[in-house]
Amino acid sequence: MFNFIKNQLQKIYTHFSRIATIFSKPSIDQATLNELEQLLIEADTGVATTRFILEQLKKNIGTQSISGTDLKDLLSQELLKLLKPFTFPQENKIIYLLIGINGSGKTTFAGKLAHSAVSHHKKTILVAADTFRAAAPGQLSIWATKSGASLIVGNPNQDPASVVFAGCQQFKNDNADYLIIDTAGRLQTKINLMNELAKIKRSIIKQLPDYTIITLLTIDGMLGQNSFQQAKLFNEATKIDAIALTKMDGTGKGGIVFAINHELNIPVAYLSYGEAIDQLKLFNCEEYVQSILNQ
Ligand SMILES: Nc1nc2c(ncn2[C@@H]2O[C@H](COP(=O)(O)OP(=O)(O)O)[C@@H](O)[C@H]2O)c(=O)[nH]1
Ligand SMILES: [Mg+2]
Hints:
The chain is an alpha/beta fold and 295 residues long. Helices cover 46% and strands 15% of the residues. It has helices spanning 19-23, 30-42, 47-61, 68-82, 106-119, 136-147, 160-174, 191-207, 225-237, 256-264, 285-293, and strands spanning 94-99, 124-129, 150-153, 178-183, 212-220, 242-246, 268-272, 280-282. It has an eight-stranded mixed beta sheet, with helices on both faces. The longest helix is centred in the C-terminal third of the chain and has 17 residues, at 191-207. The radius of gyration is 20 Å and the shape is elongated. It binds guanosine-5'-diphosphate and magnesium ion (MG). The site of guanosine-5'-diphosphate (GDP) has 18 residues, from helix 5.
């Protein structure tokens, strides 16, 4: 669901800087391809994925002489092939488990998602499973008020799985449509905290075995290569279904999406691009590629 979030045409992605210079060249030689390789790496596309893109391009070019415009077309096709669209489940009732590092935008995303659901008449419950930070429930409570969603909070330092338990009970009792669980931020390298996520997920599956759970990782679009490591380790701890890229109104370079798709096979489902409640949109692969190649 949630494909009802409107795709606005507003340009919110940053482009691959300097790429226009390459595309304006009348002919492309090896030195230009090296320049493109460097540029993709600088844009956080990652070494392995960049190498893969260059190999594919070279295969396509073969012995032909091509112009910068031809290269742009070929690159656009290759980048698009790397992006795997997220298939939204068709079920009417969905549980979102939001995970990610501190400050990656989970709580803000939870609020925006709740707003979108409520404005489409979906009965929505927000669960403040971040019992670690004293300020966390208050922060989510503001989003609950703004969006019109119900709110379940625990006590400070309560086991987050037990708050999630209460949320699941409420979901059943209220016959709600969406359960949006906001968890405490954690570093991908802290094994205990990562295991806690798996425990939370098991608890949801146990109580609500017949419902679709979307485990969604929020990634700060400005963090670059570190985001790749986050996605990799979070995915190992508890399988991620999709990513929400946040802070896309910032200075991120955009290449990380290709590395995550290509090397980890995790699709991006949402883009969050500001602090206002309606600054959320569905990720559109074609639009994304066009946007970063055109400046
Ligand atoms: N500019 C911008 N700021 C954001 C966005 N999403 C979150 N923030 C800000 O980033 C900070 C951390 O966000 P928060 O949702 O609390 O992250 P959490 O720790 O993962 O729950 C807050 O100051 C938010 O207002 C976004 O898409 N754009
Ligand atoms: Mg938070």
